């Protein structure tokens, strides 16, 4: 699998993309890494294999992988009422939860009956500070402008939800009695050797030499340079295209019974199975079925960054594409879409 019929430098100039990193993989192995441009416009900091980008909502894919690992280890259950194991906050009971309860399965597939409050879940504002997850869920933080409530019967409707992933984070922290990033380090980053990946709420005390700045669609650097999201499970991952490809290949290998994390084929299959009657959503990933292939994907889009991970089965090939530009259009309408077409058409 190779890039074809695309003049990358010219397309980057056209879209005003400062930096770009692509990792390609096939049959469980990395087949190529291509890096272009700069981590920061008008600097001499070049993108390389160790360059760290904000993955934004691709964090949800990692959270899904963590959940199925914890399900495999019997810490969690996909179909149990999450209130059974939540300790320091619980999903409020109301008329919509009488017949069906909120489960990890419904949260991971955005079908829990929870809808994000309007104008919520934006990047960290230093003047506001960093909220506790309980304050956020109870609506006592500007980041979430209303307490989280079930607004539809669980499993009845699809609503893409950052709040749902905040509940997943709270559940993991309550069950494991550790902060979310510590659980990820133990069960994902360390065993997979993802040394350039982290969840750091404030990015304090970190050498940012290999970190990319975010850029607007006009090519200018965003305010604060390194936008942070104070809800790691939903949007807090910083990683390289190579590290993220290792995680995607772990899913692919788990589906073949060759997991480094000890995830069984049966549990891995849950992640890529259409959930609760919706053909396009798995557990932390999105699905598209063709005549011969199943495409598994996750998109990241936030202040200053856009990215995409994609895996094609049964061909066992895929790519991770990360940019430090927020173009204001869907990934498939910008440079990421052109790269995708070059690779998979």
Summarize the structure.
The chain is an alpha+beta fold and 345 residues long. The protein has a single domain, classed as 3-Layer(aba) Sandwich (Beta-lactamase).
Structure description:
The chain is an alpha+beta fold and 345 residues long. The protein has one domain: 3-Layer(aba) Sandwich (Beta-lactamase), CATH 3.40.710. It is built from ten helices and nine strands. The longest helix is centred in the middle third of the chain and has 15 residues. The radius of gyration is 19 Å and the shape is globular. The mean pLDDT is 95.
- Strand order, biggest sheet? 2-1-9-8-7-6
**Element pattern in H and E:** HEEEHHHHHEHEHHEEEEH
**Major sheet characteristics:** 6 strands, antiparallel
Per the CATH scheme, the topology name is: Beta-lactamase
Radius of gyration equals: 19 Å
What are the segments in which pLDDT stays under 50 over at least 5 consecutive residues?
none
Q: What is the count of distinct domains?
A: 1
> What's the CATH superfamily, by name?
DD-peptidase/beta-lactamase superfamily
Percentage beta strand: 15-25%
Shape: globular
Mean pLDDT: 95
- What is the first-to-last residue Cα distance? 11 Å
Q: Total helix count? A: 10
Task: Determine the structural class based on helices, strands and strand pairing.
Answer: alpha+beta
For the secondary structure, the number of strands is: 9
Helicity range: 25-40%
Q: Give the second-level CATH assignment, the architecture.
A: 3-Layer(aba) Sandwich
Level-1 CATH class name: Alpha Beta
């Amino acid at each position: 699998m190779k890039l074809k019929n695309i003049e990358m430098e010219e397309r980057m100039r056209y879209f005003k993309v400062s930096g770009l990193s692509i990792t390609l993989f096939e049959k469980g192995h990395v087949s190529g890494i291509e890096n272009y441009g700069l981590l920061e416009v008008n600097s001499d900091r070049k993108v390389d294999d160790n360059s760290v980008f904000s993955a934004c909502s691709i964090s949800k894919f990692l959270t899904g992988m963590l959940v199925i690992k914890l399900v495999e280890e019997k810490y969690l259950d996909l179909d149990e009422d999450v209130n059974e194991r939540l300790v320091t906050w619980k999903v409020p009971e109301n008329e919509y939860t009488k017949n069906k309860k909120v489960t990890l399965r419904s949260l991971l597939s955005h079908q829990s009956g929870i809808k994000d409050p309007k104008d919520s879940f934006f990047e960290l504002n230093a003047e506001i500070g960093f909220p506790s997850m309980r304050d956020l869920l109870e609506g006592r933080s500007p980041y979430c402008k209303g307490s989280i409530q079930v607004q539809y019967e669980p499993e009845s409707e699809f609503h893409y939800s950052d709040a749902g992933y905040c509940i997943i984070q709270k559940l993991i922290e309550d069950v494991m009695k550790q902060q979310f990033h510590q659980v990820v380090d133990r069960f994902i980053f360390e065993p997979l050797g993802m040394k350039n990946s982290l969840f750091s709420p404030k990015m304090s005390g970190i050498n940012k030499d290999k970190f990319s700045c975010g850029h607007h669609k006009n090519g200018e650097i965003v305010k604060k340079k390194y936008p942070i999201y104070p809800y790691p499970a939903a949007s807090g991952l910083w990683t390289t295209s190579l590290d993220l490809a290792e995680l995607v290949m772990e899913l692919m290998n788990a589906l073949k019974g060759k997991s480094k994390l000890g995830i069984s084929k049966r549990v891995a299959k849950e992640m890529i199975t259409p959930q609760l009657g919706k053909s396009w959503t798995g557990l932390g990933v999105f699905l598209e079925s063709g005549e011969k292939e199943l495409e598994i994907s996750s998109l990241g889009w936030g202040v200053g960054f856009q990215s995409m991970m994609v895996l094609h089965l049964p061909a066992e090939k895929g790519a991770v594409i990360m940019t430090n530009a927020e173009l204001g259009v869907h990934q498939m309408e910008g440079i990421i879409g052109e790269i995708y077409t070059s690779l998979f058409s």
